[in-house]
Amino acid sequence: MSGLESYVNSTVSIITADGRNFVGTLKGFDQTINLILDESHERVYSMTAGIEQVVLGLHIIRGDNVAVVGQLDESIDSKLDFSTIHGLPLDPVTH
Predict the structure, then answer these.
(1) Residues 6+ apart with CB under 8 A from 66
(2) Rounded to the nearest 5°, which phi and psi values hold at 67?
(3) Cβ count near 38 (within 10 Å)
């Protein structure tokens, strides 16, 4: 769990087991990897429209639904034009 400590107060991208993508500032977590994001939004992918960014604000993601947590490079992310990026939504994780 020490790996997540280095991400606190950083912008992270989280992929959930149900295929959703959340971006926000990691404010905290617990031993079951429940995550607290501030200033967060969900990125909704589509093949017909650009990436929709749904503002969520303060958001908690249950640890049993977390698949991947990664630090986001804000300098690169801020230069992207999400209205022109198209992509298939991720499928849920299957076991």
Answers:
(1) 14, 16, 17, 33, 35
(2) -105, -45
(3) 14
Alpha carbons 63 and 53: distance in angstroms, whole number = 22
Distances (CA, A) of 41 to 23, 53, 54, 73: 5, 6, 5, 16
Which residues are within 8 A (CB) of 49 and not within 5 positions of it... i.e. 6 or more apart?
Answer: 86
Residue 38 tokens, joined: 């501030």
Which tokens sit at 58? 């303060």
| pTM for the predicted model, two decimal places | 0.91
Q: What is the pLDDT along the chain (95 residues), one digit of tens a residue?
A: 458 999 999 999 999 999 999 999 999 999 999 999 999 999 999 999 999 999 999 999 999 999 999 999 999 999 999 999 999 999 888 77
What Rg do the C-alpha atoms of the chain give, in angstroms?
A: 13
